[in-house]
Amino acid sequence: MSNTVSPVHLDDTIASLGPVTQLAFVPKDFDACVHFWTHTMGAGPFMLMEHIQADSCSYLGQPAEIDITAAMGYWGDMQIEIIKQHCDSPSIYRGWLDEGREGLHHVLIAVDDMEQALEVCYRAGARLLQESTYRGGSAEVAYLDTGGGPGTMLELWKGDDAGRTFFASVREMARTWDGSDPVRRRS
Asked: VOC domain: which residues (predicted)?
């Protein structure tokens, strides 16, 4: 690289929002992916959240009803999420699989102010693809295409106390996990 390359102003990048805390996958074979992460990588245990439905959701600016199951676990301090969509509704998950993709689907950054975080992303050239609210709007997620090619989708998560408590409980289970009961159903 030449010395004429201008410096990166990190305050103007998505990295200014905080660290990546989750790697998320949307595999063709959900069970095989969970098995890989538990038996090969040693992540877990995974908490299974079945048939999650948002209070409100839009995909590419249009209202959407999307039914998903997510398995959530930890690999050290990194949260791993594995997602399966049950319906044929257009979504970032269905589109990913329809394009024949596998591997890393998105990374997550937790934010306190969704509007401010979206503005940072828009200035960086990202494009909003899908957004949802949960628990009466107390939790929000937004998925953005960061424009960098495959595997560069970003999820912004503005959590609530219920979400933070759930993630903390899954993380605590991982700290003391002995390898037994690698997939558990959320009660």
From this structure: 19-159
pLDDT at residue number 76:
95
Say if CB 144 and CB 128 are below 8 A apart.
yes
Containing structural domain, residue 140: 16-178
Residues 6+ apart with CB under 8 A from 130: 57, 58, 59, 60, 64, 91, 92, 142, 143
Q: State whether residue 153 is helix, strand or coil.
A: strand
Count of domains in the chain? 1
**Residue 54 within a domain:** yes
Confirm whether 159 is domain-assigned: yes
Helical spans, DSSP H, in 10-137: 30-35, 92-98, 114-123
Mean pLDDT estimate for the chain: 92
CA distance 93 to 64: 12
CATH number at residue 72: 3.10.180.10
Residue 22, in any domain of the structure = yes
In-domain check, residue 42: yes
Contact between residue 153 and residue 106 where contact means Cβ atoms under 8 Å apart: yes
Q: State pLDDT tens for residues 49-103.
A: 999 989 999 999 999 999 999 999 999 999 999 999 999 999 999 999 999 988 8
Burial 105-130 (b: 16+ CB within 10 A, else e): bbbbbbbeebeebbebbeebebebbb
